[in-house]
Design brief:
The structure holds two protein chains of two kinds. Helices cover about 30% and strands about 30% of the residues of chain A. By secondary structure, chain A is α/β, with parallel strands linked by helices. By secondary structure, chain B is mainly alpha-helical. Chain B has one domain (about 1-245). Chain B contains ten helices and no strands. The two termini of chain B are about 25 Å apart. Classes of the chains: A alpha/beta, B mainly alpha. The interface between A and B is medium-sized, with 25 and 23 residues.
């Protein structure tokens, strides 16, 4: 079966700065694919290249088996950062544009009602709040029944409730579609996604299903320890996991440990000589994986630390 | 064609909700018709001539309108659509680059046509304007209008390509338009200007457009006299087409 979207060695530079470096992947199965990474890692450039908004320097992007697809925008929908709505048009008129372009027969009000947005039908978009504008944009994007949707930070800059509504909407409509979503709130986004691509400095540093990404690191928990206390705790940490890994940040040291199945959290607290030096202790999550893969980590060396 | 029609509807609605655009494209040509029509509309253009002042106001207003739509309407609209990120969004929808800008041009052409009908009707009903053109000149008049429309629209598009900032776009397009209005005879009669200025205004397309349309409208065109004006408009169309061809408008 041909992959629906395939990227082969995609590269892109702005002036002399490389923002996409040798990006390759294939996607075939429906689901939500999270493209995550910090600001400036190349997420938006990657997504905009996939939808034809940017010309890539090298490599190829295939959609439905063809590159330079004439009907690309019939197959792939894109939600850009910001809104992109015309301020002096109403929601009704924005819907009409999509209906005209895709020759759709949709009952506007009942469609909007399914998203609890019918009260905005005749409202000019300039009068909508930021969260509502994003929701309207999503609703417009779901109208044409695209096979692939690319959403660039759909919940960025919104309050918790709006973020939650938007993520739930995305999840609800992802059943038969391939949806790429970028976000830099990795853990929240990962809750709603099936697959994860972690990006750093224009490269994909990890990818796979959520379980695959979480399990690629042979560690189960993370301790955040005050940096000046780490030296005193290193011996007791090695008693929990002699191959623990550290990652140093300003004022804190992240310690990645593997807690044996037969041991519980209590075991950690009992083993650590000074529990007050531990700022945080939690099961490993996607942000930890990201720090681990992209940060300045060091494998514990007994001679150096003790 | 589906996309052109869809965006034509959108742009038409958006245009009618811009009070400034409506003022310049509908209200102002009517005001000019009334002011000039009342001032010298009933006076013959030459002693013994049956052609009245109002008969020159109609072609003047057509050029004014097309210049306004092209030099101000097109770049300011593109600039606003771009600043609202809507242009970027449109380029992710099934419409070609050319298709979208064609529909935008079509919208302004349509509103210009509607405006011509309005002030034309006022000129005929209230100021006794006459229709002097024969069949051949009517056809040539329409073709020339299309050429003038193309010249101003592509010049406006050229402004939009080269200036990203909406405020700067606004200033540059307004200055370009007003410079042409004041040196074309629409606002100040060319005959009352110093000789050197009368030659200087030939650098700009508006005076050429007015000379041709006036002569055609009153059915007194001599093509050997107007050859230079036609040549100017054709060369301008070719030059701007060439200039915009190698530089695509960016959506951001």
């Amino acid at each position: 079966m041909k992959p629906f979207i395939e990227l082969k060695n995609v590269e892109k530079s702005y002036d002399k700065k490389k923002v996409l470096n040798n990006i390759s992947f294939k996607v075939n199965k429906p689901g939500v694919y999270l493209i995550a990474g910090p600001n400036g890692c190349g997420k938006t450039t990657l997504l905009e290249s996939m939808v034809g908004l940017r010309q890539i320097d090298n490599g190829e992007i295939f959609v439905s088996g063809a590159n330079n697809h004439k009907d690309l925008h019939h197959h792939v929908g894109f939600l850009l950062q910001g809104t992109g709505l015309r301020k002096n048009l109403t929601v009704k008129e924005e819907m009409q544009l999509i209906k005209d372009l895709f020759q759709l027969e949709i009952d506007d009000l009942s469609y909007l009602k399914s998203f609890n947005l019918d009260q905005y039908y005749l409202t000019k978009t300039q009068k909508l709040s930021g969260g509502t504008k994003r929701r309207i944009m999503l609703v417009l994007l779901f109208m044409p029944d695209y096979q692939v949707l690319i959403l660039d930070e759909p919940a960025s800059g919104l309050d918790t409730q709006s973020r939650s509504i938007i993520w739930n909407t995305i999840k609800k409509f992802s059943k038969q579609k391939i949806i790429f979503v970028s976000d830099h709130y990795l853990n929240q986004a990962a809750q709603f996604c099936d697959y994860v691509f972690l990006m750093n400095k224009g490269e994909i540093v990890s990818s796979g299903s959520k379980e695959e990404v979480l399990n690629q690191l042979d560690k189960t928990h993370v301790l955040n320890i005050q940096a000046n206390e780490f030296r005193h705790l290193s011996k007791s940490l090695s008693m929990i996991d002699e191959h623990f890994v550290t990652l140093h940040f300003d004022g804190a040291t992240y310690v990645f440990i593997k807690l044996p199945k037969e041991k519980n959290i209590q075991h950690v607290w009992e083993t650590i000589s000074n529990p007050h030096a531990v700022l945080d202790f939690h099961a490993i999550d996607f942000e930890d994986i990201y720090f681990y893969l992209t940060g300045n980590f060091t494998i514990y060396d007994e001679e150096e630390c003790v | 064609m589906i996309a052109v029609k869809a965006f034509f509807k959108v742009e038409l609605k958006a245009l009618f909700r811009e009070p400034v655009t409506i003022f310049f494209m509908i209200i102002l040509p009517i005001i000019l018709t009334i002011v000039f029509g009342s001032t010298f509309g009933d006076s013959p253009i030459k002693e013994g001539s049956k052609v009245l002042g109002i008969d020159l106001v109609v072609p003047n207003n057509i050029v004014f309108l097309l210049a306004n739509a092209g030099l101000m309407g097109i770049p300011i609209t593109i600039s606003e659509v771009r600043s609202q990120m809507a242009l970027k969004r449109y380029f992710t929808l099934p419409v070609t680059y050319l298709g979208y800008f064609f529909s935008l041009g079509l919208t302004f052409a349509f509103v210009s046509f509607a405006s011509v009908l309005l002030f034309g009707a006022i000129s005929f009903i209230f100021y006794d304007a006459s229709f002097w053109m024969n069949g051949a000149n009517t056809v040539i008049f329409l073709i020339t209008c299309l050429l003038i429309l193309y010249d101003f629209f592509i010049a406006g598009y050229f402004i939009a390509i080269n200036i990203k900032n909406p405020r700067t776009t606004n200033i540059v397009s307004t200055i370009s338009f007003l410079a042409m209005v004041f040196t074309s005879g629409v606002a100040i009669p060319l005959d009352s200007m110093p000789k050197y200025l009368q030659h200087a205004v030939d650098i700009l397309p508006m005076s050429h457009s007015i000379k041709i349309l006036q002569d055609l409208w009153i059915n007194q065109i001599h093509y050997h006299d107007r050859f230079g004006d036609y040549l100017y408009l054709v060369l301008m169309a070719l030059l701007f087409t060439f200039l915009v061809k190698w530089r695509r408008l960016r959506w951001d």
